[in-house]
Amino acid sequence: MGFVAAGYKRADAVAQEMRAVRAGTAAPFGVNLFVPSAEPADRDTYGEYLRELAPEAERQGVELGEARLDDEDWDAKLELLCGDPPAVTSFTFGCPAPEVFDRLHTAGVAAWVTVTNRSEAAAAEVAGADGLVVQGSEAGGHRGGFLDDGSDEGGIGLLALLRVLAGSTRLPLIATGGIADGAALAAVLCAGATVAQVGTALLLAPEAGTAGAHRAALAESRPTRVTRAFTGRPARGIVNRFLVEHSDSAPCAYPEIHYATSPLRAAARQRGDAETLHLWAGQAHELARAQPAGEIVREMAAEAAAVLERVSGDLRDRGTSGGYRSLPT
Length: 329
Fold this sequence. Notes:
Blueprint: E1 3-5, H1 11-24, E2 30-34, H2 43-60, H3 74-83, E3 88-92, H4 98-106, E4 110-115, H5 118-127, E5 131-135, E6 141-142, H6 158-166, E7 173-176, H7 182-190, E8 195-197, H8 212-218, E9 224-227, E10 235-238, H9 241-246, H10 256-271, H11 293-321
Parallel strand pairs: 1-2, 2-3, 3-4, 4-5, 5-7, 7-8
Antiparallel strand pairs: 6-10, 9-10
Helix pairs in contact: 1-3, 2-10, 7-11
């Protein structure tokens, strides 16, 4: 099932994209919303960082954007989804109030919440979520969590998190983070996920709007790191100059830093400057395939089925033989 990304868009733009999806397919689809921050960040926490970034903006020939709080048409988007319901609405960066879930359920929309630890999963279940998007630390892009559990910004790996949550919630688990081939899909299904969600695996598809410099970096054997440097919120990207030089001083101030750096990042994208652009990517980005999205999804499913059949056969053989086969030398 495909999703319309509603982040950084006004309600009318989301409505237009939903109409385009419905014109192209009768299949169900979802819409993902960013939950807005409740309070603006303290200017004292990010003012010095903006001064640090001024030379970066000058280098790109632009000015920094306005550091501001914006709810991105939150109420209008909810009204849209209740009046023109998709199959699923998923939330990231927060857990909506129970009345939001009530409105969506009345409209016949299932609601999922992105979680990165047990505390968030419990909060989402109490609020009324129908499913949990379990985001492991391997995932590319922004961390979707909203409650600090004392762990570092990297968080918990996907398989460990799935096993912890499988024993503590009745909700279906949607696994995401580092899933880029059929074997990984099979692994998360074995670990308790109902389905998997992929992102980085599709970034080289011709349908993706991935910048050329970003595409080139994805295919290289380069490390990733979680940083607040680009948006003021922890996100995993391929390590480049901007990330290295600014991560240590970047404040926790989202969406203020996102809006401030948007012009310089847009200019870097236009110029093909991979050392300034945010290169969001999961830890398995080297496995991304330059194929149409439909082919990628179908091949992953076929690979997963083959892996599960092979492993099931191996386990059956071991069970009937009364022991383990010798490993090859």
